[in-house]
Amino acid sequence: MRWSETFIPTLREMPAEAETISHQLLLRAGYIRQVAAGIYSYLPLAQRSVLKISQIIREEMNRIGGQEFFLPVLHPRELWEESGRWEIMGDNMFRLKDRAGRDMCLGMTHEEVITDIARHELRSYKQLPQTWYQIQTKFRDEARPKGGLLRVRQFTMKDAYSFHTSWESLDETYQQQYRAYSRIYDRCGLRYIAVKADTGAMGGKDSHEFSALIDVGEDLIVHCEHCGYGANREMAISRAPVVDDQPAPDRPEKFPTPGIRTIAALETFPGGAEAHRQIKTLVYMVDEQPVLVCVRGDHTVNEAALARLFGAEARFYPAHPGQIVAAMGANAGSLGPVGVSGLRIVVDEALRGRKNMTTGANEDDFHIRGVVVDRDFKGEYQQVRLVEEGDFCINCGKPIRMWKGLEVGQIFKLGVRYSQTMKATVLNEKGEAVPMIMGCYGIGVERILAAAIEQNHDENGMILPVSIAPFSVIVNVVNMGDPESVRAAERITTALEAAGIDVLLDDRDERPGVKFKDNDLIGIPLRVTLGPKKLKEGKAEIYIRAKRESVDVALDEVAARVQAALESSTPQTKE
């Protein structure tokens, strides 16, 4: 393909609206253009990369027996009401009415549609297991779309679904998907971590999230480099550093704290206490009943952990001021577990064994010091705090690390979450109707591209992995007015194309500096440069973008050397 015939609208200036490196470079390199907030047009270079990523995904899904579908984007309300998610999805769902006034939505995901097919077409355990997938457009009305392709309202997802009659069968397919995902990200050249994840609105039993490690990632990934433990922060548990407490008095003491309503204010108040020596007490309404949650003053409650503790069906939320006063007799900022009766009290594990602590007295403008956990109040111990830097691995006790990550895929063991509510059953060996056990597996296609750019760039532009770059090689003619250079470029381009290599011939009549800047900007892994000076020696220059290394090669060896360089640069998979 010739650059002169290809639409590549590069920009010299940095777009003012671009927040992240990938957003800046995708715009500057002529990959995308914004239509509206979180909605982008993919121009030819982006589309070529997206199609290459999709093909890698397709090959790995087919390799493990996946069967490709193409499901509708437009869904009727009734299917989502059957699963119970029409209300749960809230404002994230695009909703509309057809001309007959029927409620419809744009698909955020396709559990309902795929389960509807399964319940009408699958009859017997003999037909299972089945693994179905698609690569399809999804819509989510993000409240704050940002970062170019990192958080958008329209995107491409590979979503797969599996159907089973036993958990053992699901476990086997789940592991196949896990390994396939690892191969996909390896082939795309990503640096990533796979960790335990929260199932969230998807529901189900277990989940793993695949996160690309990037500085602008929205997730925090907890990882132990010693034993391999890993989880996103919402799922992670850890051991807090041990705190040496001072001896406690025989009984707690109430003392006045006028106007003190925060942990920080109590730290500096005379007779107060450091944050890690305070008990922070919060009130949550769980199915309209107040529950106390106690954590260390310098820790943060993990509401995802509370959701798992209270149960998927429970409705819970932070109590309103009036509800707090009704339950505790005081306002937020003066609350504590001492003397409380008749309420469920959840105590974070980091408070176990602590003594000489300070907490609210359940009376405005008063606190209590000298509190000993388990002596002065009792509750059920759970880890309900967010993991912090400086914590230790729950498995091996070594220090854990926290990384910023971008979720590029997630897999779920859904179990019977959808098949029960939607009555998707098959007959088992005994002739009994049983709900199918399901798995669900999603990959964000454009997020792979954006993450690859975040991980692979320099001050000049993108440095895309060979496997997902729009072209593998760019052939640059330094002087289009030199017929010998043009003929040599044409011969090399033809030879590379004959070898099955994607080639872009930069045949523009531009200054060499302009062409080299554009070549670097758009992220092509290899450049072959043909100029009159080297041609007199019968040579061309091969430039490897990632290494910033160049070598002069005889013209008749260029095709072979390029092929070898591409093979050595192609990301390898770890089985």
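Second entry:
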Amino acid sequence: MSKSYLPLFRKYRPQSFKDLVGQENLVKALTNAIELNRIAPAYLFCGPRGTGKTSSARIFAKSLNCINGPTVNPCQECPSCVDITNATGVDVIEIDAATNRGVEGAEDLIAQVHYAPVRGKYKIFIIDEVHMLSATAFNALLKTFEEPPENVIFILATTEPHKVLETIVSRCQRFDFRRITVDDIVKRLREISNIENIKITDDALFAIAKNVSGGLRDSLALLDQVSILGTQEEITKDIIDELLGKVTFDRLTKLLDLVLEGNIEESLKLIDDIYLKGSEPRNLCENFMEFLRNVIIILNSSNPHDIVKFSTLAKEDIDSVLEKKYDKELCAKILDVVIEYYKEVKFATNPYLWVELMIIQASRAKSAPQVIVQQPQVKVQVQKIEQKTQTSAINKPIEPVEQPKETVAQDVSNPVEEITAAPTVQNNNTSYDTDTNNPVEIWSKIVNSIESVPAKFFYSGMAKLIEVQENTIVLGFINQNVITQAKSELKHKALMDGEKRAFGGKYGFEFVQLGGEIKPLEGANIKPVIKQQERPQVKPAEKEISKETNSAEKTETNNNKSKIDTAIYSPKVKEMLEAFGGKIID
């Protein structure tokens, strides 16, 4: 009978400290503790999945209970070592906290603590996924963890140490496992591939290592999955990408080329082909974003080949990107478009439609003009405005109107209008107040001319008037994020429309960030007033009659409210009400 198949991650599980990959500091600490015979009663091993927490706990148990132990090199042959390797040891008990999370499981564990070890020198309890224990179970174990019986050791393993009770953590020696580097994973996978005669390229191993988030166990499971393909032909990076559901480098390169050319038709055909082969719209966006990020890093690096570890591309891929001589500014604009549409793709009911729109918009990025925001020459001496002028400018009423439907985009990825240039004044019969020279009055008039209520309150609250030049109004904002909001489609269109209504297009706008010598103009805080609906005019005589009538009605209403129908109350309550004259006492 043939021997049963053993997965690679179990077959090549570390059995001694020298087999542990990428945890040198932890190995040094544990081996020193063994050599110096300074064994703590409780340990907490925490870190990402697949980094060796449970394996380290078993190796530590072997080192302590080996017939030659305590030793840093267990023999792997004595009954104690064999039992721990097979997870059948009577002195080393492994407990899954996910299935024994209640107080009953904790009580059973406490009961086993008092039994002496049978074969080894220590009785060791390995509690995996310890964060799954309930608070009651944790509290039941507190005293045992602090003062366990002699020769009893607890080793706790968890991926989420923040969920472990702090009183438990304080009673343990904590060791944090770090993610294993890509180079270490590739080196280990190559060793195993050679032993198992798996034909696989270095690029394919690199692709595996980059997609397992620093977990060696996950990389071995993936290698095991593709190993059946490597018996006759060599496994390539493209095979790994397809297995992971990722779009291959060649297809992403072709997609970027088509987008840069503005070839919308061929671009849509390509994403349709990618979609039909099983790649979901969300995955396509993520892969394209990752690819663009790598391209931008390469284009901005003085030595691109030194950044292989920071990207998911192989050296050959980097050479291919450099040969293309992409425009890094244009690639950055396309990345902005993909990021914006990805936000919609994640939650859309029809994500494929949004991917098509994303490709169309990205293909037009080359022809879209950039938003130009010039830095103004700010004067150090600013004009002081009298309080009287400020008050008269602030109290000008405005009428609320429905927010218009704007279509002009202010994003760098969309067609936009330049901000700095003042709009052309149309020659019509409308009269504008162009004689005002007071900066506060100018800004107040524009704010009160904005029809969109959200835009009105945004500019009045967030925009600080710096100065009014000949044909330009300089506005300051606290940071770049707010400037981005000010340049957004709806808000900026509403601002420009308000300026046209107030001054007929005389002024343009410049947006700058506050700080240093760039300070807001004193007395330039604008508080817009929303005009209430007008009430009909009432003659003086009618006012007096109305006042008397309202007063009489109000008195009668109050009297009625103060009297209570005592018939609905019990005798005792009636007595109380009569004592107070049948009135409600506040």
